[in-house]
């Protein structure tokens, strides 16, 4: 039975922010081999990175289109591609690989327009391809425990959600003009900076753990002299009638990557912090507060099995990504071997989740641009 597959990487040069993390995460379970890539827009960097990653020179491509066509034509071509380039490139690159019959894993936000996302989803369905989108944080083991506990009714009916994703990387740029980073350029980032870059992580995370969809949103943005939003406050109404607040910011002093989610139910509450990702705070209404640890013996077998390192040894971002890739790669291997993936195998964010992210960005920007009116998702 074939237990290994091959993949290619778009972006992911050694100096990129996230692409290299994908490679490390895929490598974690050693079931997929990097054999092809178009790692950088810079030709010299592309070649040097291919060499560094040990990819045969004839499979280091100067252009993603050439890569999709040539890999599709090879008998030993790649089984999937991971797209880790800036936002504005995602649609064209994903489309090209799907058209060539290659499974796609794409970074978020998936693309710019709802109809682009719908086109990609349709294409993947028609060609029976896996189409995943890497919203990182639900890959953490304890986040899956959080989801399980909410499903089991441990906090009762969800009545309020409060979440924040805070960074301070742009605090020194309040009132400054836009710099050269692509995230500040609407042509490359899209209609939003912060709603798209970190707000979408909140949107998917809350939907993943609670199963609730945002019904409508009321947002206010601060641009502080920039073309796009860098500080966003949001009021939400969910499809079960519950309300919530999200705050996404790049100007929150002292916060490096402060992603916190609090879910309140009528029987208790759950709280998770990205910077201590192995722990979950559980407040049952009729008992003392509990701190639940990843991998602990008191967890269900399903939850305990998600743990990758011994308890007390912190896991991190690479493993959160690796957990998504474990499921994606298992799904691909099973499909290749004619087996049916299980629901557990299929537990990774998909193109449909990417589409919901685009709807979220569009609604949030529309609300903020129209004087903070309520906008239906
Ligand atoms: N899931 C997460 O937690 C997470 C974290 C950070 C970034 N991201 C997403 O990842 C994407 C990339 O962000 P980043 O911060 O790594 O950007 P980056 O600018 O650090 O790196 C992008 C890389 O892509 C390369 N590139 C650009 N266009 C290319 C093309 N046409 N062909 C080949 N290579 C190309 C660049 O040369 C660069 O090496 C964005 O969509 C961002 O939203 C996701």
Which radius of gyration do the C-alpha atoms yield? Answer: 21 Å
Q: Give me the CATH fold name of the largest domain.
A: Dihydrodipicolinate Reductase, domain 2
Specify the CATH class of the largest domain: Alpha Beta
Residue-averaged pLDDT: 96
CATH superfamily of the largest domain: Dihydrodipicolinate Reductase, domain 2
**Order of strands in the sheet with the most strands?**
13-12-11-10-6-9-8-7-14
Query: What small molecules are bound in this structure?
Result: nicotinamide-adenine-dinucleotide
Task: Say how many strands there are.
Answer: 14
Order of helices and strands: EHEHHEHEHEHEHHEEEEEEEHHHE
Query: Which architecture of the largest domain does the CATH hierarchy give at level 2?
Result: 2-Layer Sandwich
Identify low-pLDDT runs. none
Largest beta-sheet characterization = 9 strands, mixed
Q: Give the number of helices.
A: 11
The portion of residues forming beta strands comes to: 15-25%
Supply the helix-strand structural class: alpha/beta
Shape: globular
Task: Indicate how many domains the architecture comprises.
Answer: 2
Helix amount, in percent? 25-40%
